[in-house]
Write the C-alpha cells for this entry.
Amino acid sequence: MESKKIGWIGLGNMGVPMVRNLMRSGFDVTVYNRTAAKAEALKEEGAKLAASPAALWEAADVVITMVADDMALKSIHDAGFRDGARSGKMVIDMSTVSPATTRELAAKLAAKGVDYLDAPVAGSVKPAELGQLVIMVGGQQACYEAALPIFGKLGKASFLMGGQGAGNAAKLAMNTLLAFNMQGLAEAVIFAREKGIVPEAMLAVIGQSAVANGVTKMKTANLVGGDYSASFALKHLAKDLRLAVGQGMHTPGGIAIHDSFQQALAAGLGEKDMAAIFPFLEGKKV
Ligand SMILES: NC(=O)c1ccc[n+]([C@@H]2O[C@H](COP(=O)([O-])OP(=O)(O)OC[C@H]3O[C@@H](n4cnc5c(N)ncnc54)[C@H](OP(=O)(O)O)[C@@H]3O)[C@@H](O)[C@H]2O)c1
C-alpha cells in the first residue's frame, strides 16, 4: 500500500492500542469513535479526529473498523459511512462479526468500487499493544497483499483464509477453541478444589504441563487473584459463540460451550473478563 493515510473507526479496548501502533510506525491516522471523548487521548498523541464516519473517507485511503459486533458495524455503515465511499479506496474490518454480515457489507461497498477485507484478530489487549496479534483475512489476494504493510505493524502473523467472510469464519472457529480452553481451565480447577486441592496448587501443575497454553498462562493470575476486569469481555465471547451457532456450528461440545457462556451473560457477567466463567460455574458472585 503506497499511501499511509488510515481512517480508524472504533476506539475500544483493542482499537486504541492498535491505533497507537500504527501511529508509532509512521502512519497518518484519523480516528472516529461514537463516544467522542475516547478519542481525546489519541488526539494529544497526534491522531486527527473526524466528526463522522462519512468525513473519515475524505482523510483516508484505507478505512479500518474495529467495533463491538454486527449491530455496531451495520449501524456505522448505515449512518452515512457508505456516503463518503470513493472508488479505489479500501475497507478493512477487524471486528469479529458474522461472515454473512461481512459479505453483505462488502457487496454494498463493491458497488462503489471499494475493496473489502475482513481481518479479525486473535490475541487480546496485551498482544494488541505489542503488535503481536494474529490476523485472519478474507478477501482477494491482491487486496491482502496491499494491506500487508498495515498487518505487519499490528500483528506477528497474518493468513489469507479464503474469500470475503473466511477471516471471520476462521475467527469463530478460533474463539470456539478459546471458550473451550477458558471453561476447561475453570472446570479442572473447580473439580480439583472439590477434591481438596487449592486453585494455586492446581494452576501451578497445569502451568508446567503439556496442557498449558497461552490462555491457561494468561488467565492463571485472574483465577488466583479474583480480578475479572475485562481484557476480553465475556459479552464478546458469548457473541462469538452465538455467531458460530448461527453459522451452523452443531457439534456437541460447541453447543454446550455456547449455552454455558450465554448463561453467564444472562447472569450479568457480560462486562467482566471471559475468565469470569470460573466464578460463574462455582456459583459465586463477582
Ligand atoms: N478485547 C479483546 O481481547 C478482543 C480480542 C480479539 C477480538 N476482539 C473483537 O474485537 C472487536 C472490538 O473489541 P473491543 O474489546 O475493543 O470492544 P470494546 O472495548 O467493547 O469496544 C467496542 C467499540 O465498538 C464501538 N461501538 C459499539 N457499539 C457501537 C454502535 N452501535 N455504533 C458505533 N460504535 C459502536 C464502541 O464505541 P463506544 O466507545 O462509543 O462505546 C467501541 O469503540 C469485537 O468484535 C471483539 O469481539 C476483541
Q: What stands out?
A: Residues 10-15, 33-35, 38, 66-69, 71-72, 75-76, 95-96, 121, 124-125, 231-233, 236 surround NAP (CB under 6 Å). The beta strands are 5-9, 28-32, 48-49, 62-65, 90-93, 115-118, 121-122, 133-138, 155-162.
